[in-house]
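Rotation project, supervised by the postdoc (A.L.). Task for the rotation student: set up a whole-complex structure prediction and record inputs and outputs verbatim in this book. Inputs entered:
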Amino acid sequence: MRSRRGSESGRQDRAETPEPKRSPRFGRSRVHDSLTAYTFLAPFVVIFGVFLAYPVFYSLYLALHRVPTDSFDVFGGLVFVGLSNFAKLMADQKFWWSVLMTLYYAALIIPTGIAASLALALLLHNRLKWVAVFRSAFFMPYVLDMLVIGIVWTLIYSPHVGILVRILETVGITAFSEKGFLGMPGSAMPAVVFANVLKGAGFGMILYLSAIQNIPRSLYEAAEIDGASGWQRFRAITLPLVKPITLFMVIIGTISALNAFVEVYAMTSGGPNVDVGGRALGATWVTGYYVFDTFYTQFKLGYAAAMSYVLLALTLIISLVNRRFLRSEV
Amino acid sequence: MEAQPGIAIRRALVYVGLTLAAIVVLFPFFWMVITAVKEPGHAFTAEVLPRHPTLDNFRRVLSDFGFGRYFLNSVIVATTAAFFATLFASLAGYVFAKKKFFGRDKLFGFLLASLMIPGMMYVVPQFAIINAFGWMNTYRAMIVPHLANVFGLFLMRQYMMTIPSELLEAAKIDGAGEWQVFRTIMVPLSIPIIATLFLLTFQFHWNNFLWQLIVTNVERLYTVPVGLALFRSQHEQSYTLIMAGSCISVLPIAALFFFAQRYFIEGMTMGALKG
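Outputs recorded:
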């Protein structure tokens, strides 16, 4: 954390200066101040309460209930079922498979995302013309819609006539021609990850770039005098000093991987199927997609709510472990 | 420190690296545009530059397939939502930055903690709430649940803390009420962060596909991403049309990014660099 504070801009430093001394009228104006404060806060807090705080509890309530089949009357028709949704979930192979696929997805996307971001940042950390243009070009996909980007990639990844299999055919690789990258269990998840890494790398790139720019040049110069090679300087100076960014990337990477939905919806719909002990399970069947499928396609609100609660627990546990584990090394 | 030729080679290598990276990162967008201007049925020709480029796909998705309406819906939803989300965040940000009131720090910590909760968690209960309110298939349903933007509140507060409190005191001595202070001092001095948050929330709502899909099931209310996803499921092979729809879907955000990239980049990374 120490070095992250070092990277803060001047504006932030000013923000941390203590507020001016209380005016003599403070005592009298305190109640008045509180009243105004609550008035100004009201719209935000009311919406937060109804749509962000209450749902966390309401979701638990839903998780303990079942919507009778074919009923859209969510409130009237709920049947209390105790913990049976959770019990069912614990025995649901498809759910544990989805957790496994989510972890697989996270294990692929977090390191590759970090590597891509760091590589782009290192490339941009050069005093060259056009650097600003490249920086914008790399960042732009991050602001665009994952759904659209996923749809474009389904076109690029298409079997037989897709542009990528055609390019590979010219160098003699035909392994993907028949089914396409998204149609084969082995390549589907890496293909989804690849598309997503290209979209998201610009974000981490900016974070790494500003961290790298804050490393004093004198450190590198001293290392150079001591005869350290470029790789050694990277390992011994750059990597340790950008560690807070890496920690941050792992934490938000975990949260977004556990949330992964749109990329899967756009590209694979959870497929293609693989045979696991006699059951057909999707090679990209992540938990976020299972929640969506349970709730939107099958309309099992209670079961989906229970699932999202387990997802929340997983997120919190993993974030906590990440924090402990990585912070001890900083 | 190195000899001149070494620097020149290094520089050339960096340019090669940057160019290759840019080609890979931007290829999907290039291919999207190229496919969108191909003639129907030619989606999978390998021509990098189509021999007979046409804008007919755009005309068809806009007039024959309702994308004009979807576009209008997206504009309405994203603009309204961005306006109110920014307004609410700046009102709340102002008091968190400048007022002392009972429970301030606890409340702020509580609000920030909610950022750890995965968004998927909210989908089911929010949908049930919208249903209970009878808001299904309304603009309200798409907009209101996302108007409390905690990240935006954080940005606002951080920025507003840098505005000297003496200015506010002076205005109060001159007899300005709270609302006047907010409107005539805080807002004008916070324009950069207000613009940033407006752009970020606009972008968020323009891309808020999952939620918009869930709370609408009538075509006249579809936003562009929802319309695009459902169009694709009905016309799976019409890739030239799908890509034209995709272009329409990303164009507004790409244009905004082109003109206001500084706001996007700073706004999106500010929280991470300061948190």
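Student's summary: Chain B touches chain A through 96 residues (CB under 8 Å).
Supervisor addendum: Residues 106 and 239 of chain B are 52 Å apart (CA to CA).
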